[in-house]
């Protein structure tokens, strides 16, 4: 039997999306970025918006995302992706514009940009990768680092009286009137990946309907920065991060509106 007789559409179980390039990813073993890239590419492909999508990535582990997704990309200064995305979407309101940012970027140097973009309700998707650490620059404490968590700059763990509280940036932006869909997900299991993909697709669909800012946080691991194995990283995340950063939808204006007018 010829191989062409086997490789037919009806026999195809899985096919890599054309939005994902063939470049070998540079991320560390166990890193969540590769999985997020994959499902983001699948969403863009399945929605048929490859030519209409513009990504904005800043400094950090996300800086080379343009190398893996075959769409139009712009590079922003550290923390400034929402500001750049604002200009892009205002000049190109018909496009699907998204930012792809880490916690050291979005929740620290970029706090002003993300808060004001969300408050204005800029019609963009924000993908927020939270691994509670500065990954690329050496594993320093980030605004999202947990109390007691050891990092390169907190060798004895984060201390409240010295470093303050971890920042729940997602809960903060959910309070702003410009956001319509705010959710927190993860990608450490197949079930979690499916939920995250569903959330990202909903966010892009909402942007297509001009519903304002869509905010998708993905609680993630950083085995290199945490100095533990990929398997141990997932367990540590589930045990320590999920209780403080609980998964699920935080704000869904569409659902809230439906519930408001539901017949009792």
Describe, in plain words, how this protein is organized in 3D.
- The chain is 39% helix and 16% strand.
- It has 264 residues and is of the alpha/beta class.
- The protein has a single domain, classed as Thiamin diphosphate (ThDP)-binding fold, Pyr/PP domains (Rossmann fold).
- A 7-stranded mixed beta sheet has the order 2-1-3-4-6-5-7, with helices on both faces.
- Helix 8 links the parallel strand 5 and strand 6.
- It is globular, with a radius of gyration of 19 Å.
- It starts with a helix and ends with a helix.
Short description:
By secondary structure, the protein is α/β, with parallel strands linked by helices.
What is the CATH fold-level name? Rossmann fold
Which segments are poorly predicted (pLDDT under 50) over 5 or more consecutive residues?
none
**Strand residues, percent:** 15-25%
* Class by alpha and beta content: alpha/beta
How does CATH name the architecture?
Answer: 3-Layer(aba) Sandwich
The figure for the number of domains is 1
Query: Which whole number gives the mean pLDDT?
Result: 93
User: Main sheet, how many strands, which sense, barrel?
Assistant: 7 strands, mixed
Order of helical and strand elements? HHEEHEHHEHHEHEHHEH
Adjacency order of strands in the biggest sheet: 2-1-3-4-6-5-7
Helix content: 25-40%
Number of strands: 7
CA gyration radius, whole angstroms: 19 Å
CATH superfamily: Thiamin diphosphate (ThDP)-binding fold, Pyr/PP domains
- Oligomeric nature of the chains: single chain
The CATH class: Alpha Beta
Which word captures the global form?
globular
Number of helices: 11
Distance between the termini: 62 Å
